[in-house]
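F.,

This is the one I mentioned.
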């Protein structure tokens, strides 16, 4: 029997609770949703009043605004229609505010706060409409349209606006205590972005205030206040802020309050298209050492009574209020920005580079995004953040790039001010540690003053010299060990190159070996010579791809060697070309050319591993920045300048974006841990510099208008 009948989907009665009570994260999220509705109604304020009954039987929540209200038609055809697209289609309120609601379910958050809802709304024309809902009616109903709702309308002379009255019983009363209201105040304070022009903008006349009253709850303080952002916001140590357009271009401003009269710096920012619309970014960072906390307090960190806080309370404030919030039209999207919700992964980013990178408990940030349509950043229906799509990934990347700009400048300031641990140059520290020249000179002076006879004095100096020779053997072993570690660290840095080079032959092996089995089995059956030819062709391919691995490993061998070879004269041009060959495939795929200029037969005494470490790290940086900034001319040039059998210098140039003058002047780029890459370890140039020192060379960076320019020169006696 065939039966063809059409049906319509009928939501169950409790569907309203599913998109309200079951979907909304918690009580605080429910209040936030209703506050947003007041903002969308063009109200200048919203009043949130919690009052408990004297007998402890329950409480009442009244949320009211002075907005434009709703007509009877709006109530019936919009407010009572779940998931309406009205706000999404309108985009802006009558007074031009960007509408917060887009899912059409926020009003049902009221079901989280109590057992019923009484809506009263008045239009500017005096039309008052009331609706009363009891949520248990929806739980009891089989279908949503089984619940009949009385909608009453009358003409009144009352002020325009909307008021929601919600009652909660004794069971819900137990959820509200001092800690709960402190949390609510915290959420409301973080809801409004102090960095946003959407709020408190008295010049535009568009002001929105959140007023909170709490009265009569057991063991809970009376509250009556207008919610304001925490004063901590304006007491930053370092700040970077600005606007970035969807095409990736923007202007940022960096400032610091660590010392008086530090001028603001304007930064021209450029990256790939954001793929998440225009962005407004404001990142504020706080140092957490004892002295920094004391300075923070002196700048004006007080409690709500106006009294200066202590160091412990200041740290607790940073612990509570830190986080980078994401704001749409001035409202925060929870939980982005909650303390402990490290959506930017700042803490894991800092693990490998604690001197340069900031941690999540040091930052209070605001990232303003556009509408879902313009940004593709989609808020989850459960109001617990943004969907993790490509646009969200790009948001994290661009924000990380901005934070990197701040981190670099913070690092430089702390270094100059002596606030960070000084970088250690391994080679020079070893020389200082094991040098006995100053000791011999001092002892010789004292022996002469004491009129010790020359034979005895010479004997003492000889003992010191013999001891120095023994220690020189030790220093050579330490040098070798450090060099091996640095070579292997360099190898780890270019693991992506190794994977890129090895992926194609590995893919060939994976696909061809099963084919060999099939052809062998087939050949055994019929001895067909054409199948033998197929097998030989595949075997030949295996040989060629195996050779790719052999050549790759031979190029990497100098960096991977567990034992250090002897220092000996090497044909320098050929050695540098061998280091470049590691990147041959990667450079070819990105259309980057490389050239080594100089005499073929010139030799220079050095360690093979160190030469590879120097140029591998330099080339790795060049390839990264040339690709990252998408420069049109893509070239690396290394030129040897010689004078007969002597090396004058080696020039290393690329056509990338270059290095900023302040980084060149401070030479901070050679310090371990410093990097301008968002996820850089800061090891590359430090290793290159140390490797140069071991071979009697000095690696310097020079200013250039045409990319990065490094020079390797012979190190002079006593040069620092």
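My design for it:
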């Amino acid at each position: 029997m065939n039966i063809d009948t059409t049906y319509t989907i009928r939501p169950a009665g409790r569907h309203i609770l599913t998109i309200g009570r079951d979907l909304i994260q918690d009580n605080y999220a429910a209040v936030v949703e209703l506050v947003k509705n007041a903002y969308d109604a063009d109200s200048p304020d919203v009043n949130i009043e919690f009052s408990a009954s004297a007998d402890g039987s329950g409480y009442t929540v009244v949320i009211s605004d002075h907005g434009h209200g709703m007509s009877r038609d709006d109530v019936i055809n919009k407010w009572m229609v779940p998931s309406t697209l009205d706000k999404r289609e309108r985009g802006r309120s009558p007074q031009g505010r960007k509408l917060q609601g887009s899912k059409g379910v926020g009003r049902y958050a009221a079901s989280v706060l109590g057992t019923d809802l009484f809506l009263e709304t008045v239009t500017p024309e005096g039309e008052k409409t009331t609706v009363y809902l009891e949520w248990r009616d929806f739980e009891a109903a089989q279908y949503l349209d089984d619940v009949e709702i009385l909608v009453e309308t009358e003409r009144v002379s009352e002020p325009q606006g909307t008021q929601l009255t919600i009652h909660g019983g004794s069971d819900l009363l137990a959820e509200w205590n001092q800690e709960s209201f402190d949390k609510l105040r915290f959420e409301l304070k973080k809801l409004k972005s102090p960095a946003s022009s959407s709020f408190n903008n008295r010049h535009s006349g568009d002001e929105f205030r959140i007023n909170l009253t709490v009265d009569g709850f057991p063991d809970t303080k009376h509250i009556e206040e207008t919610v304001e952002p925490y004063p901590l916001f304006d007491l930053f140590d370092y700040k970077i802020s600005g606007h970035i357009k969807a095409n990736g271009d923007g202007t940022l401003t960096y400032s610091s309050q660590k010392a008086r009269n530090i001028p603001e710096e304007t930064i021209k920012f450029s990256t790939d298209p954001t793929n998440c619309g225009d962005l407004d970014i404001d990142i504020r960072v706080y140092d957490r050492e004892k002295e920094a906390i004391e300075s923070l307090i002196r700048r004006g960190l007080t409690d709500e009574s106006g009294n200066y806080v202590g160091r412990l309370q200041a740290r607790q404030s940073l612990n509570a209020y830190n986080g980078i919030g994401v704001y749409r039209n001035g409202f925060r999207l929870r939980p982005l920005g909650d303390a402990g919700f490290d959506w930017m992964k700042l803490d894991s980013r800092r693990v490998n580079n604690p001197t340069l990178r900031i941690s999540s408990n040091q930052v209070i940030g605001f990232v303003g995004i556009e509408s879902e349509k313009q940004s593709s950043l989609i808020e989850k229906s459960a109001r617990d953040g943004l969907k993790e799509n490509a646009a969200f990934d790009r948001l994290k990347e661009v924000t990380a790039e901005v934070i990197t700009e701040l981190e670099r400048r913070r690092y430089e300031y702390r270094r100059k001010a002596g606030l960070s641990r000084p970088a250690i140059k391994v080679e020079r520290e070893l020389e200082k540690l094991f040098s006995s020249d100053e000791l011999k000179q001092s002892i010789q002076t004292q022996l002469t003053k004491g009129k010790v006879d020359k034979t005895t004095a010479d004997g003492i100096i000889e003992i010191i010299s013999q001891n120095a020779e023994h220690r020189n053997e030790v220093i050579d072993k330490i040098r070798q060990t450090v060099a091996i570690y640095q070579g292997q660290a360099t190898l780890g840095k270019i693991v992506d190159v190794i994977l890129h080079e090895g992926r194609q032959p590995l893919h060939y092996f994976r696909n061809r070996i099963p084919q060999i089995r099939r052809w062998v089995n087939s050949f055994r059956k019929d001895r067909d010579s054409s199948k033998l030819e197929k097998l030989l062709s595949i075997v030949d391919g295996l040989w060629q791809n195996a050779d790719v691995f052999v050549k790759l490993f031979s190029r990497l061998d100098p960096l991977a060697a567990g034992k250090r070879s002897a220092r000996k004269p090497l044909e320098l041009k050929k050695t540098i070309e061998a280091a470049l060959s590691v990147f041959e495939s990667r450079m070819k795929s990105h259309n980057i050319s490389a050239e080594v200029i100089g005499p073929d037969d010139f030799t220079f005494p050095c360690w093979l591993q160190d030469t590879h470490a120097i140029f591998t790290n330099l080339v790795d940086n060049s390839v990264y920045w040339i690709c990252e900034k998408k420069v049109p001319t893509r070239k690396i040039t290394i030129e040897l300048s010689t004078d007969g059998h002597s090396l004058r210098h080696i020039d290393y140039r690329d056509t990338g974006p270059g290095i900023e003058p302040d980084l060149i002047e401070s030479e901070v780029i050679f310090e371990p841990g410093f990097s301008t890459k968002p996820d850089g370890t800061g090891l590359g140039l430090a290793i290159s510099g140390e490797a140069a020192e071991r071979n009697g060379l000095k690696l310097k960076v020079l200013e250039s208008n045409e990319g990065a320019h490094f020079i390797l020169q012979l190190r002079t006696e006593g040069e620092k």
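The radius of gyration is 35 Å.

Talk soon.
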